[in-house]
Write the structure tokens for this entry.
Amino acid sequence: MLTALTAISPIDGRYGKQTEALAPYFSEFGLIKYRVWVEIAYFLELSRLDLPAFENFPRHQEAAIWDIAKCFSVEDAQKVKDIERVTNHDVKAVEYFIKNAFKNLQLENYSEYIHFGLTSQDINNTAIPLLLKAASEELIYPQMESLLDIFAEKSIDWVNVAMLAHTHGQPASPTRMGKEWKVFEYRLREQLAVLRAVPHDAKFGGATGNFNAHYVAFPHINWHQFADEMLTRWGLKRSRWTTQIANYDYLAAFFDAHKRCNTILIDFARDVWSYVSMNYFKQLIVANEVGSSAMPHKVNPIDFENAEGNLLIANTLLEFLSAKLPVSRLQRDLTDSTVLRNLGTPLAHGFIAYKALSRGIGKLALNQSAIQADLENNWAVVSEAIQTILRREGYPNPYEALKALTRTESKISAQDIQIFVQSLAVKDSVKQELLQITPFTYVGK
């Protein structure tokens, strides 16, 4: 029996409670449910066409037909799997399940219009973008938006907190903690907008993408227009030119955009980890939590490390999916089918990471005394400001003068800067201007 302890994948095991909200979309049950929805929705679309078979169609039965999809249960999914054991074909099993349901509704006369003229990939390549769209809009994007809200809040809370910047790991011109969080908010917001803008494409065109069976049966109907309009009503965009399967270019674009969002958050996790190691942040202590099995004093930034690890796994899989899916032999091979069953895996790892980041941020406490001490110990960083004003004043070789002052083995103090400024052959007003510059105020805008 599968439990959190016996699951092979940690997303269903160790992290199962965190990812269970994704199961209705990316599980085997979720895929079957969306397949049933597509079959039912397609059948009802056909019933509204000018086809002889539907001349006396009982419209009062539409609600009952919809209920086959809307009330689809795990028990129903098991019935489909039982049928699949006989057919050895997953989508054909869905067709037979619905036909059995039609029989119970006394609609056998219409059952041959279930899956009419279609190939399995018309169902799969419509069900998958539908479930992906739903999971993204209902769960994944809101989790990202929650992070954006946190970034925005912290950027306001810490807007005036001056801190030493580090470029190449070395002390650099000061910045503000709030501004650095604003950078990540800006980056993630920009790339999330790109991700949201990727259209959810569906393939719907019969065995080789040409509606061969549809046109041979009913040549007077414009089947391409029918499918375009139908998928638009479902919130999807139809790929007009395909083989038997979707081109998957939209999925590649979706995965690549998703990967960029995750990469930004990897960068964020590593930066916060570094700030914790620099003592710029303390972590709130959770009673009874253990940081190390050997060192009792440890409080580790485990949420940021967990997030980074999960995001790296997610991106590795997203990159693979993006590279593999658009490639298929001739009009199709089956490699896309097994690969697509892993669609939820990278998204689940990302989902775990977004929650870990939110949790980790909630444990952070700004350590302003450490931040100020670092600024006080690095007066050399005002050299950029001083030499820039001296350039403005036409002072000869200001960069070289500051280089000679600051690139020494001894630490530069506030007093060293004051002595240097007082020695300059410039107007007293310029000296006063220079003396106002400190590591705490030289932070730009």
Observations:
- The CA atoms of residues 191 and 260 lie 7 Å apart.
